[in-house]
Amino acid sequence: MNLKDLIWGGCLKFLKRWSRSGLLDVARKEISEFSNLTVLSIGGFGPVDNELKQLVENQGGTYITFDIDPRHNPLILGDIQEITRILAESNLSPDLIVALEVLEHVQDPLVAISGCFSVLNENGKLILSTPWVIPIHDRPFDFYRFTPAALERYLSQFKQTQVYARGNFFDSIIALLLRGLFSDGRRGKILMMVGILLSITRKRPRIYQNISKIDSCIGYVTVSTKN
Known about the structure:
Elements: H1 3-19, H2 23-32, E1 38-42, H3 47-58, E2 62-67, E3 76-77, H4 83-90, E4 96-100, H5 109-119, E5 125-131, H6 148-154, E6 160-166, H7 169-178, H8 185-200, E7 207-208, E8 219-225
Parallel strand pairs: 1-2, 1-4, 2-3, 4-5
Antiparallel strand pairs: 5-8, 6-7, 6-8
Helix pairs in contact: 1-7, 2-3, 4-5, 7-8
């Protein structure tokens, strides 16, 4: 691996640390309350997923990965929009489904969420996260950005849903600056360096439960209870 690749990898880790801040905290809180959980991670790939897997297994649970991309080597290969059929074939009913930064890449989010609802066990939970200010990525499979009102509507079949904001307005500006890593030319890299400097001088984005006065954030995370 050459120096350019090392720098790119380091900058990417810095960006993910900021843009996905808080996701692990919310998921860890839900997982740590129970033991022997069967957790289905949809689209789970990378450091956050690895930490969740270790946490679940340390508590005697089972961690199953589900992904549409075979390059991620999931235990179950499939589309979330077909989750009802796929899990019926596996006779699997998870206690918890975690889908972090997945919903914006799904053509029919309501079908995906309804499928998750149907396969969860009676007292199961669904943890979702979606970006808000993050620019288009993974082209051409980036379809939506969701407001809290939209998320609550999509998740209305669940008995209870809590929507959290990840970061605030200022945090979202830093996230955009850090996305300069993916911009062509020198300007994007300069913006990224500004974002790095600002993030070093500031605490990591926090999770906000009261989102009534937050008009912009990095993204949202929801915790929904089936019954």
